[in-house]
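Let's practice the habit of predicting before peeking. Look at the sequence and jot down your guess about where helices and strands might fall. Then scroll down.
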Amino acid sequence: MATLQSIRNHGKLLLIIMGIALLAFILGDFLTSGSTFFNSSNQTVAEVEDEEIGVNEYYAAVDQLTEAYKIETQSTDLDEDTRFALRDQAWQMLIMDKTLSQQAEKIGLSVTTDELSELCMGANPHPIIAQSRTFADENGQYSQSRMVNFINSLNQEAESPEQLEYLELTKKVWAYWENAVRLTRLQEKYTSLLNNLITANPIDAKFAFNASKDTVDVQYVQVPYFAIADATVKFTDGELQELYEQKKELYKQKPNRSIEYVSFPLVPSTADLQKVENTLRSVENLFKTGNEEEVTSIVRTHSDPDVQYEGTDYSAETIPAEYKEFAFGENTVKDACTEITLNEGVYSIARLMDCGYSKPDSVKLVAVANSDEETDQEVGWVSISDPYWPKNILEPAFNGQVGDEFTASIGTNEQKFRIEDMSVATPKVKIAIIKHTVIASSQTYTDLYNQAKQFVVANKTAEQLNKSALAQNLTATPAFALEENTHKIHDLKNSRDIIKWAFSATKGQVSGDVYDCGDQLVVAALTEVNDGEYRSLESVKPELALELTNKKKAEHIISKLKTANTLTKAAELFETDIQTAEGIVLSSDHFGAAGNEPAVVGKALTLAANQTSAPIVGNNGVYLISVGEKKASTKEFNAAEEIRNLNFRNYTIPQQAIALLEEEMNIVDNRSQFE
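Done guessing? Here is the structure:
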């Protein structure tokens, strides 16, 4: 149990490792072992080809990932964005498992039980295990003994309901890691296979070498498109429609909605502020003069939950920055108090409960073996400000001396610790702080709700809402392309219900309800309904119009350049300068100061020395170029090196192939019906 407690206290993974684990996470055999339970529901949250994902399986995936995330990050309260991110991650991993497993089975790829065991518990475990702080020693290195102790704890017999709950949590942690390794390994096998199939050959290598060995300096005249007035070119609706049809496949879309919404910020009224100030004034004297027990009670009653007094020893580095001078200044005295202040809706007051003493910032602990059959376990350095260590361990640890031993309760068990070492003692203080964030009262909420409701009654269409918002100095904020499974609108809290409404409303309709989005009330209007397979011509018209405009401008520029067969004449004609781009190479799309111009680069490497090109249509304008002598690299051709370089550039192809698998599968997404 000491091992698991250590894991609880030191199980915060590095962010990058947590990212790998979350991306790799999949429920796999752990979830499918309960197939009877999962198949009992005929509610289907998704279909992948002919395989169904039941809503219970989806919820279980979300719950499993959420619990694993809490354990690894030592988080208990997850914000809305994190919860939504975990739901999306669980969904993506379920879909990946279905698609990748189907493909792997077809070609005979698998991760065997023995292979998985070796990857998780062997001498050289998978990086997901090896890089996890869960199984790291005091030096941050992977410890197989910690892994063994952890696995052994899975087989303990629970002696109480609390121990049983603790044991189930341990097994859940292990199931998380085991499944993460399983899917990651399967993914590695699949991508390795693709890497071996998608590889450069000697012909590719020779082409790449030739494309990079020759360089040339180029003189050029650029006539940018913006140099030609838009009014000088015209195109027809037919040309616009023709271009739209040519590029239509680029405009595929999922059903989506666009809205406009008006927000009514929910802020405390003057009466709300005054009420809180009066309350703090009523306990101010006792806070300044009372004993520690009385002060603790006042802070517990009147401060925000995340700011409580627990007798913590603060150093100059760990104390809240705004109180550093107050607590560690030259004139610091015990029981000094600040005045009650109001800053951005938060009332504050602080009292210096103790000062003028020193303690170490950290101690090194060892968990002493409970029997001769066990060995001592190094816990490592524990910080005085570490919020994850309980008070009954921190107090004796920091009040003792090197070599002292003490016993502390951990759940229903007792664990003996030894103080192995201590850092140098530094000045400390104890400070009691009240921070009281003023929130809008129920009366303030009611008044604002009535105001928003009247706005709804007065405005029945999107057009009316927009005009009224303008007249009342309110803002009608647009939100575009909201999909059925979009979780949140901009930074609006709890805005999922607005999205649900948008998919049941008709265009132009104003929401009948006022939506409570935490710190503001919201009224919405549906402005666009897009259910087609492709974005409409009207929605992409601006970008198509720009493309057509530039095309027409290019034709206009080329017609004028017919009279200029040299760079000098072209520069005079368009009143511009001759520029130089040095070291142009075929393997790069970059062309001097002009930027990304692959057509110009390609033409430059085909011209003979001192030859002037015909006009070249580029991304940013029309070019006339003249090249100097080609400079050949003295580097010798090395086929193996070129192949390695080419393969490195293609490293994303396997991942793209996996994404393509999902695109090609017939995936039906019904999540919006259950969230």
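How did you do? The first strand starts at residue 44 and ends at 48.
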